[in-house]
Amino acid sequence: MRGWLDFVSLKLVAARAAMQTGALALALGLGLTLSLTGCGSVYYSVSMNAAQSRIEQARAMGAETAAPYEYYYAREHMRQAEVEAADASYGDAASYAETAEQYAQKAIDFILASRKGEAK
Hints:
This is DUF4398 domain-containing protein. Helix content is 93%, strand content 0%. It has four helices and no strands. Helix 1 packs antiparallel against helix 3, helix 1 (2-60) packs parallel to helix 4 and helix 3 packs antiparallel against helix 4. The protein starts with a helix and ends with a helix.
């Protein structure tokens, strides 16, 4: 009888360990999913802030009239980034924000090059 009880005891311990391992795996999986979802919004926020400051810099330099195509292209991509973020499409939003930053930088570069040409 003692051997049979040891066997049942061992089975119960193994079943409990398997359940705890499964619960641990489930908790880790859920935590990983939540953290990865959170990273998208963080990356979007960083991209959005960088683009916004670059667009503001271009505007302050007179990009609305000196480089209107690049400036308004950047601004409209920024607006679309905000729309995508409102739908929680953070990857798309970050992509639009990156494009906005690139075109704002192009506007800045265009203005600086034209000023350099005037100085000659």
